[in-house]
Description:
By secondary structure, this protein is of the alpha+beta class. It has helices at residues 16-23, 26-33, 42-51, 56-59, 66-75, 82-85, 100-105, 128-133, 149-155, 186-190, 211-221, 238-244, 261-267; strands at 80-81, 91-92, 97-98, 116-117, 122-125, 141-143, 166-169, 173-179, 194-197, 203-209, 226-230, 281-285. It is built from 13 helices and 12 strands. The longest helix is centred in the C-terminal third of the chain and has 11 residues, at 211-221. Residues 276-287 have low confidence and may be disordered.
Amino acid sequence: MLGDPYHYRDRRTEGIPERVDDVVPPQRLYEKTGIQRLPINTLYQLVSMRQANDPRLEAAETLLLVPDLFHYWMTGRIVAEYTNATTTQFYDARGQGWALDLLEELDLPTRFLPPVVAPGTILGELLPGVGEEAALRGSVPVIACATHDTASAVAAVPGLDERSAYISSGTWSLVGVETREPILSERARELNFTNEGGVGGLSGFSRTSPGSGCFRNTSVDGSVKARPTRGPISSPSPSRLRRFGVWSTPTRPSSSIPATCPRRFGSTADVTDRPSPKVMVSWCAAA
Length: 287
C-alpha cells in the first residue's frame, strides 16, 4: 500500500461530480455505467486525486478495492470481484468490462485495473503464513463472495423473483428489484436509480433511501437525543411538519458526510425561522 486509505465519505470529493460533468455529461456517464450520482463513488475519488496532483495515482501499480485487497493478502492473487467493480462508476454496464475510454477521457490511468472475476470464483488457497497466524491447518480455499454487501444481501433473499422487490437496510436503505439487463434510460437517471451487478448475472436496480443512516448517526452523535419507537411507518402530514417547524432532506449531498447528520439537518433545514433541533427526536421503525 502506498498510504493509508481515505474514508469513502471524505469531503475531498465535494464539487468533483460537477467537474466531471464538464468533461462527461451526466446523461452519457449514466448511459455508460448505470450508476447513481453519489460523491462517494470511486470515480469521483480518483478524479479528486487527479485534481490534487496526488502522486500516488501515477505511482500505483494496481488498483484494488478493499475486499480485493483482502483477497490479495489472503491468496496473493490480484483480481477485482464483479459486484463491487460495478459500483465504481467506471464499469461498462453494457460491455461488461472496465470503461477504459471513460477513464482516459477524464485523464485517469487504466493500466492498474485488474481482471474481473465473478462471485463464487475460487481464488486459490490461503497463504501458509496467513493460515498459521489464523491457527488454520491444511489447505483452506478462498472463494470470492459477492463483495458488494447489497449484492450478497439480495442474493440471500428467499424466493426473490421478477414479481418481487427488496429492501436492503444497513448504513442506509436500498429499495429495488432484480433485472436481467441494466435499465439505462434517462428517466432512471433523473430519479437517481442505480444498476449494480448481482449474483448469477442479474442486476440490482434500486434507489437509495438515506434517511435511516442519518437517524442512526443522530443516535451516536450526541448533539440531538434520538429515541427509536416501534409502530406503523407513515409520513407526517404537511400540517404536522409546519407545527414542528423544522424538517430536512437527507438526499442532499451535504447530508452524506458521516456522523454529522444532526448538524447537517440544522444547516440544511427547509423551514420556518425556528432554530436547529435540540430536543428529543423520535421516529418509526418497522415492527
